[in-house]
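Shapes recur. One chain:

:::
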Amino acid sequence: MRKNLAHFMPALLLACALPMAAQAADANAAASKQVATAAAHAGMALGATDLKMVHAHLQHVVNCLVGPSGKAFDAKAADPCKGMGDGAIVDAKGDATTEARLHTALSEAEQGLKTSELDSAHADAQKVLSTLQAK
């Protein structure tokens, strides 16, 4: 019996590891899609000609980063990442470098949402875009 168990142990370990690896790959793909969508909205914020639209697109960035369960999620604003995952920050869990970059982008977007001047909001949108595009 012991010999049989030792013989099948590698296959058993592989069978357990494959679903975990697939789940991690799915989370990474989900995070990447959400980051790309957030970056697109940061670009839209940067190109917006009035403060209201800059703020709308920056909130879309926030919604993509935190996901529907996130504290900063605004259900009244559009969720361009709906169905892509649980939020880029949530889906990037375990990748400390990516998480840190996404938290920085979140702070920059939130700063842009607080500003009442178009030029300042554009500057914050540029920071968000640059942060999201950095690797």
